[in-house]
Amino acid sequence: MSPLIEVSDLRKYYPIRKGVLRRQVAQVHAVDGVSFAVNEAETLGLVGESGCGKSTVGRAVLRLIEPTAGAVKLRGRDITQLGKSDLRPLRREMQIVFQDPFSSLNPRIRVGDIVGEPLKVHGIGDRRQREEKVAQLFARVGLRAAQMRNYPHQFSGGQRQRVSIARALALDPSFIVADEPVSALDVSIQAQVINLLMDLQRESRLSYLFISHNLAVVEHIAHRVAVMYLGRIVEYADKATLFTRPLHPYTEALLAAVPMPDPTLKRQKRHVSGDVPSPISPPSGCHFHPRCPYAEARCRVESPVLREVATGHQVACHLR
Amino acid sequence: MSATAAKPRSKPSWANELLYLARRYPLGVAGAIIMTVFVLAALFAGVVAPLDPFSTNPRASLAPPGSAYLLGADMMGRDVLSRIIHGARISLAVALGATFLGSGFGAALGLASGYVGGWFDLVVQRLGEIMQALPLLVMALVITASLGPSLPNTIIAIAIPLIPNVARVIRANVLSLRELPFVEAAKATGMSELRVAVVHVLPNTLAPLIVLATAQLGSTILTEASLSFLGLGVPEPYPSWGRMLSESAAEYVRTAPWLVIFPGLAISAVVFGANLLGDALRDALDPRQRD
Q1: Which of A24, A177, A231, B234 is deepest in the core (most CB within 10 A)?
Q2: What residue of B is the nearest CA neighbor of A86?
């Protein structure tokens, strides 16, 4: 069976223009050849530091930003070449939930209308049927139907995120990009929203591209995980493998940095020094070599390709 | 939503709603009353004015306020109160007309410019800057001179120079709004760009738009005065507040101050009323300000 979403060699470059003539002087390689697949009813976790391009991937997959190159296939059909009107019906299949629960809802519109808007856009049902559907959606995400008449500012962050999820579910999509959906929430609320997403997945066989910098959250919700560094995927494996036997030095470092709730547990800390390099002029060879504790001469020259080291376990490193 | 799921609270009728707003924004009510009084005075000027605003009386030249002339008389012995009441027609028509016209077109242009971006934005903004480089009055002068003096032309002439100011502010607002996730979410549902701009972006620019419009209301009255003074506004002998003020300001401010004070007060009152009403309107239209 072919995967629901298949992304191959996705690239997004932003031009940097300078001067009166707006000449292009450089490019930001925000996403630099990313490939992955998401199966039906599966969650792919996409992790990485801020600025590594993970949100850009999420938006480019939905064509909220136009990818520079590469293909995104929904059920085998490439959507990157489609015109606006051809893309519209496919929007029903793919939705997005954003990180910031405050700016992701229009403050001037009642939440009931926010959730019902996708139905209106696609001309589904009449007024009453839409209202009924919205009430059902509210129930599904754990909100009361009576709250439909309220405005976004009358809700807490967690509730707002539920509204966002209800909006994303309105068109019965099969794929949802969740762009850091819990990062802005309190820890206790995070758990509720994560559990809601998992329940919804069980009920409707939803697939998620779950973008996060929080490995603990990803470990909880994802089936497979892709680790991104500076616009590229450096390791790609199922969750159990990645968390128990990480191969890429960067993944190792990320895992070592996860806080442990046990103060008696002493760990060998493997710090990664320095910051993420600029995606305008990424380091030569392996992008990670300036920060890698194992870097060799070869790493500075030759860029490693993502290769399969075990079944379903890919890594981009010369040394593994 | 099924009826049973709704809160047991009864749906507020427009009368309840109005009462709620009135209690909540007493200053807005004051503004509304001021504006209503002036609009009614303008509409029924013929009935309300105690005397004929055009009839001259040499013996009453520069008569001070008193029982015959409540607010005094001008050099030609015309009743100031009656002239103010009749003048409300032109001054309000110009002030409200030009403000609405200028703000409306300015908002539309600013929205298009900020939302579409690219070359269109560049051209619109540069043209706006060229217009802004010229003084408002000079622009209005050129426009009325080419269109000819009449009330509609005066309104148009005053409205056009307002457009770039409004467009600029709205554009800046749109630039930040269009990047917000709720705009992206609307696009993700497959909504057309035009609908996203009108439904999600435009309503969120309302607050600065209202503030800007009420702030410009006063200057439109004064621009009309200057135009009329130069013979390019609404032709004599029909009175407008601005002209009453500008004609008498230099000559009579010491000897017959009522010629300056009362038209000035009328302008101040309208600007004040519009500001009170505008502020209340801005808050009342913002759901975040509610309970």
Answers
A1: A177
A2: B190
Chain A CA closest to residue B9: A146
Domain that includes residue B99, residue range:
26-51+70-289
Q: Which of A20, A106, A137 to mutate to test the interface with B (most CBs of B within 10 A)?
A: A106
Taking an 8 Å cut-off on Cβ atoms, the answer to whether B287 and A153 are in contact is yes
Mean pLDDT along residues B79-89: 92
Residues B162-216 have pLDDT tens digits of 999 999 999 999 999 999 999 999 999 999 999 999 999 999 999 899 989 988 8
**For B1, which of A106, A145, A153 is closest by C-beta distance?**
A145
User: Which pLDDT value is given to residue B33?
Assistant: 95
**pLDDT tens string A113-172:** 999 999 999 999 999 999 999 999 999 999 999 999 999 999 999 999 999 999 999 999
Residue B43 CA: distances (Å) to CA of B30, B75, B219, B225: 20, 26, 22, 21
**Residue among B6, B189, B290 minimizing CB distance to A118:** B189
Looking at the DSSP assignment, which residues form a beta bridge with residue A72?
Answer: A7
CATH number, domain of B102, equals 1.10.3720.10
Is B243 within a domain?
yes
In the DSSP assignment, the letter for residue B60 is G
Please check whether residue B221 lies inside any domain of the structure: yes
**pLDDT, position A49:** 86
Average pLDDT over residues B234-263: 84
- The DSSP symbol for B38 reads H
Does pLDDT of A265 surpass 70? Answer: no
Interchain pair A132, B2: CB under 8 A: yes
B256 located within any domain: yes
Contact B185 A108 (CB under 8 A): no
Which of A20, A103, A151 to probe by mutation at the B interface, max B CB count within 10 Å?
A103
Q: Which residues of chain B lie closer than 8 angstroms to A134, CB-CB?
A: 1
Sheet holding A313-315, edge to edge: A94-97, A175-179, A207-212, A43-47, A224-229, A232-238, A313-315, A307-310
Instruction: Provide, as residue numbers in chain B, all residues whose Cβ is less than 8 Å from the Cβ of A105.
Output: 182
**Paired sense of beta strands A94-97 and A5-18, if any:** unpaired
What integer pLDDT is reported at residue A113 of this predicted model? 95
Is the distance from CB of A69 to CB of A9 less than 8 angstroms?
A: yes
Strand A43-47 relative to strand A207-212, pairing:
parallel
A59 interaction partners in chain B (CB closer than 8 Å)? 184
What ipTM does this complex have? 0.88
Q: Using 50, 70 and 90 to split pLDDT, how confident is the model at B4? A: very low
What is the structure's pLDDT at A271?
Answer: 64
B132 domain residue, yes or no: yes
Write out chain A residues lying below 8 Å of B288, CB-based: 107, 151, 153
Q: CA–CA separation, A40 vs B122, rounded Å?
A: 46
Domain tally, chain B: 1
Give mean pLDDT, residues A181-200: 92
